[in-house]
Amino acid sequence: MKTVLVTGSGGLVGSETARYFGGRGFRVIGVDNNLREYFFGPEASTKWAVEELRRELGEAFTAVPADIRDFAAVRKVFEEAGGIDLVVHAAAQPSHDWAAREPFTDFGVNAQGTLNLLEAARQFAPQAVFIFTSTNKVYGDTPNRLPLVEKETRWECASGPYAEKGIDETMSIDQTTHSLFGASKVAADVMVQEYGRYFGMKTGVFRGGCLTGPRHSGAELHGFLAYLMKCAARGREYRIFGYKGKQVRDNIHSADLVASFDHFFRAPRPGEVYNMGGSRFSHCSMQEAVELCEEIAGRRMKTAYVEANRIGDHIWWVSDVSKFKSHYPGWNLTKNIRDILTEILEYNLPRWKKEG
């Protein structure tokens, strides 16, 4: 039986990963200490997701509440695993704004935690495939220098190499404002690459756009579509930060992302980097997302506009996934924005009603 170790196993990507590989006969070790509740409050707790995995996967799932900042704890997980075939590192502090509140915590989770996992893998599972969920924020605000034009409901890239398919991996990560979150993820991103190139480990970096899906514990500071639909369904006010609400994001369903992990696992390319998002197949502006949520939820939304944008935030981001598709032609995106929002509402509405 193969074994997968998943960090952030109660989060969106982690729980999807655990469910995917657990359903394919893997033994799943899920590492999650529910720091998301500390970051974003009780509504962002991942405890419910971990319990759901326990029920669904049974004895195939082992939950470990270890803190990835603690190397001794991480080392113990690897030592006691008795062999690991795949590591999917999805644990993170994921918010621009939160990172500025506690820089040491942000860097500890995102950078030091990643190094701890890499080194433990090198010592105890050097042949394992190591997949890291990075972020498009490693490019900082460089995308904002693209030739953007304002349309009725969105900003759009008007010309240049990224206009047709989106932004690829050739964009520089230097000389730009990342936010502290972006900087800590850069450190982790480069370290994962280095363990692949220097030590020959089977590491892969997936720089995500907006990652989303029905099991996202969305909060205002993180979880764009999940939190937006929650506000639409429950009649809460949603705050839009800057850019006239015309900022554009691509959105990839967690199931499509995890399917890409499986392709990489079966044929790893050590030290490789991929931009991974919804591409032109699944993208929208904030204004367009609000309108779609209203249509799907069947009610008008309460929105408030805040003039100041988030520091280092993107005006326009669409991922070019051509490189990954060229390496793994059997992989395709399957769920677009409407599919994703509809699924978020249908899955979560019973729980939201209970919460009041």
Short description:
The protein is of the alpha/beta class and 356 residues long. The chain has helices at residues 12-22, 35-40, 47-57, 71-81, 96-101, 103-124, 179-197, 224-234, 254-266, 286-297, 322-327, 337-355; strands at residues 3-7, 27-31, 61-64, 86-89, 129-135, 148-150, 155-157, 202-208, 210-212, 237-241, 248-253, 272-276, 283-285, 302-306.
What features would you describe in this structure?
- By secondary structure, this protein is an alpha/beta fold.
- 53% of the residues are buried.
- The protein is built from twelve helices and 14 strands.
- α1 runs parallel beside α3 and α8 crosses α12.
- The strands form four sheets. It has a seven-stranded parallel β-sheet, with helices on both faces. A three-stranded mixed β-sheet has the order 9-11-13.
- The protein is globular.
- It has a single domain (3-355), classed as 3-Layer(aba) Sandwich (Rossmann fold), CATH 3.40.50.
- The protein starts with a strand and ends with a helix.
Spatial order of the strands forming the largest sheet: 3-2-1-4-5-8-12
Q: Which bin fits the share of residues in helices?
A: 40-55%
Question: How many structural domains are formed by the residues?
Answer: 1
CATH architecture: 3-Layer(aba) Sandwich
Keywords:
Rossmann fold, 356 residues, alpha/beta, 3-stranded mixed β-sheet, single chain, 41% helix, 12 helices
Topology of this structure?
Blueprint: E1 3-7, H1 12-22, E2 27-31, H2 35-40, H3 47-57, E3 61-64, H4 71-81, E4 86-89, H5 96-101, H6 103-124, E5 129-135, E6 148-150, E7 155-157, H7 179-197, E8 202-208, E9 210-212, H8 224-234, E10 237-241, E11 248-253, H9 254-266, E12 272-276, E13 283-285, H10 286-297, E14 302-306, H11 322-327, H12 337-355
Parallel strand pairs: 1-2, 1-4, 2-3, 4-5, 5-8, 8-12, 9-11, 10-14
Antiparallel strand pairs: 6-7, 11-13
Helix pairs in contact: 1-3, 1-9, 4-6, 6-7, 8-10, 8-12, 10-12
